[in-house]
Specification:
Layout lengths: L3 E9 L3 H23 L4 H13 L20 E7 L5 E7 L5 H11 L4 E3 H10 L13 H11 L5 H6 L5 E6 L5 E7 L20 E4 L3 E7 L1 H7 L1 H10 L4 H16 L3 E6 L5 E5 L3 E8 L2 E7 L4 E4 L5
Bound molecules: aspartic acid.
Keywords: Autocatalytic cleavage, Hydrolase, Protease
Catalytic activity: Cleavage of a beta-linked Asp residue from the N-terminus of a polypeptide; L-asparagine + H2O = L-aspartate + NH4(+)
InterPro entries: ASRGL1_meta, Ntn_hydrolases_N, Peptidase_T2
């Protein structure tokens, strides 16, 4: 069953004209993560590689393509966790860098802290030699259009969240059976300045523990935080549920308890995996045994050889 990598491109409602880009983006990211694993890389290397690719892809709400806050600016959150040691690293409300997940990994590897935020995170990025990029380079026409539409006094909040692009994330198990997760987001459209979502909060945006598995989440961050979604899934797995059943149980609990929708990718340390969501769509892809699996709508599950172009 090992190794395996599973990625998501965000829970939500993806307009038809953007669907193809979303599925090809997650498929390429899963393939990139899988190449790392096949080359003997760790699950942490694989999830960071997969999520970095998605951050660089303007079709997703992370890195370039992030949604804008109410002031029309980009503020991003990211999280990584290693299931062997429970080491974690996170950044919140960071600006002017292309790959927040790589910065989160540096927080894990090079500091004694779990999360750095805002200006302090920026100083740390500088000290690590991470290049600063102009905010404009992270903003797409599409994200500016949606910001403008939503800021209009007659904006319909439901419609505005409809064209929503996805937060991104990945989970993996390497050939040693070590699990890891990474999640990265621009957050919620037109959020308040300084709003921190679920993504950088341990147990909410993700969790990884070799004793049970790894999860990366997406969806309404305030709801995810209330139920500590990633850790809840692993709790159900510890009680004997499969990755798929535990993911469904936790998503159902979030829906019934706090009326929240979302999606997750989940693995157990043996390489069983699931990509599940309660939202209308979630672009996802998995790579295992030289096969690429992917889907977008509920119940969809396509497979092809990993080498076939998507
Ligand atoms: N969970 C993210 C947040 O609330 C958004 C998303 O997953 O689409 O920041």
């Amino acid at each position: 069953m090992l190794p395996v990598v599973v990625v998501h491109g965000g829970a939500g409602h993806i307009p038809k004209e953007r669907a193809q880009n979303s599925t090809s983006g997650v498929s390429a990211a899963a393939r990139a993560g899988y190449i790392v694993l096949k080359g003997g890389g760790s699950s942490m290397d694989a999830v960071v590689e997969a999520v970095t690719q998605l951050e660089n892809n303007p079709s997703f709400n992370a890195g370039c393509g992030s949604v804008l806050n109410v002031k029309g600016e980009v503020e991003m959150d990211a999280f990584v966790m290693d299931g062997k040691t429970l080491a974690t690293g996170a950044v919140s409300a960071v600006r002017d860098i292309a790959n927040p997940t790589q910065l989160a990994r540096l927080v894990m590897d090079k500091t004694s802290h779990a999360c750095l935020t805002a200006e302090g995170a920026k100083q740390f990025a500088r000290s690590m030699g991470i290049p600063e990029v102009p905010m404009e380079s992270l903003i797409t026409e599409y994200s500016r259009m949606r910001w403008r539409k939503n800021i209009a006094p007659d904006a319909n909040p439901v419609e505005c969240q409809m064209g929503k692009m996805g937060t991104v994330g990945a989970v993996a198990v390497d050939s040693e059976g070590v699990v890891a997760c990474a999640t990265s987001t621009g957050g919620m459209l037109n959020k308040m300045e300084g709003r921190v979502g679920d993504t950088p909060c341990i147990g909410c945006g993700g969790y990884a523990d070799n004793n049970s598995g790894a999860v990366s989440t997406t969806g309404h961050g305030e709801a995810i935080m209330k139920v500590v979604l990633a850790r809840l899934i692993l709790f159900y797995m510890e009680q004997g549920q499969s990755a798929e059943a535990a993911s469904d149980s936790a998503l159902a609990y979030m829906k019934s308890r706090v009326d929240g929708l979302g999606g997750v990718v989940t693995v157990d340390p043996r390489g069983n995996w699931a990509a599940r969501f309660s939202s209308r769509q979630m672009a996802w892809a998995a790579a295992q045994k030289d096969t690429l699996h992917y889907g977008l709508y509920t119940g969809e599950h396509f497979t092809q050889s990993i080498d076939e172009p998507h």
